[in-house]
Design goal:
The chain is an all-alpha fold. It has a domain of 161 residues: MetI-like (MetI-like fold, Orthogonal Bundle), CATH 1.10.3720.10. Helices cover 81% and strands 0% of the residues. α4 crosses α7, α5 packs across α7 and α10 runs antiparallel to α11. The protein is flat.
């Protein structure tokens, strides 16, 4: 019993202590070195774009992923097959390849198709100016991350929804609750506890994968580092700062999500 009690005690997070020591050492180096301070000031100009791309793409991917998950769980065989086709195809394409395809093939095709469909309405005077001249590279990157991650997030939602006991859903049906009411009041509040941890992991992964938008010239953290390193040839210093900033973002988010998960677990146990 004593052995079991000793093993149940939470371990001291030595890895976090070591990470904090390295972070403080890096902060001291940045503050005391003009070179590192200059690199840091340049690279941090891309933090806003990184946060914007991640937040917008993740919100859109979550909404689309939830819709795909509901299609996969619907009573219609056609909707289930369409959802499965979408998930398997999108998950089979690397994010970088999808980014290039959306940026240089999908977005131009969308613009051409939209303008072709709306041209008769505009010529007839039925609608105002609807022509789309172009889609910026920033929004092409957001679209690519949205589509790429929606397939993974839909599987998270599907698994979480299926984890709810069918008996509770049947009881809600017996009480006369509609499908929307059952989902809103019974299914989703219970599924979110299962969904939140993997959903948080996908969010942290998207922060890292947002660096891929630099291949399109979007001025995120990685792109600012590439531009500075190409002009100064200070590759070691520049990419060390880039890695340092991404580590602060991802480790900080991971700790925050872990604390939220533990809080939800305690509330559920109470």
């Amino acid at each position: 019993m004593a052995a079991l009690a000793s093993t149940s005690k939470p371990e001291f997070p030595w890895w976090l202590a070591a990470a904090l020591v390295l972070a403080l050492a890096a902060a001291v180096a940045i503050a005391s070195s003009d070179l590192y301070a200059q690199v840091f000031a340049t690279v941090t100009k891309g933090i806003g774009i990184t946060i914007f791309v991640t937040a917008v793409a993740f919100a859109l991917a979550s909404a689309l992923g939830l819709g795909i998950a509901l299609m996969a769980l619907s009573g219609s065989q056609w909707l289930r097959q369409i959802a499965r086709f979408y998930v398997e195809i999108i998950r089979g394409v690397p994010i970088l390849v999808l980014l290039f395809w959306i940026a240089f093939a999908g977005a131009p095709a969308f613009v051409a198709a939209w303008n072709a469909l709306t041209a008769p309405l505009q010529s007839a005077g039925l609608m105002g100016e609807l022509l789309v001249r172009d889609v910026s590279l920033l929004w092409r990157a957001v679209m690519a991350l949205t589509i790429g991650y929606s397939a993974f997030i839909s599987e998270v939602f599907r698994a979480g929804i299926q984890s709810v006991e069918k008996g509770q859903i049947e009881a809600a049906k017996a009480l006369g609750l509609s499908r929307v009411q059952r989902f809103r009041l019974i299914v989703f509040p219970q599924a979110i506890r299962t969904i939140l941890p993997p959903l948080g992991n996908d969010f942290v992964a998207m922060v890292k994968d947002s660096s891929l938008v630099s291949v399109l010239g979007v001025a995120d953290i990685t792109q600012m580092g590439k531009v500075y390193a190409a002009g100064s040839f200070r590759f070691f210093e520049t990419y060390s700062i880039v890695a340092y900033i991404y580590l602060i973002l991802t480790v900080g988010l991971s700790l925050a999500l872990r604390a939220l998960e533990q809080r939800l677990r305690r509330q559920h146990q109470e």
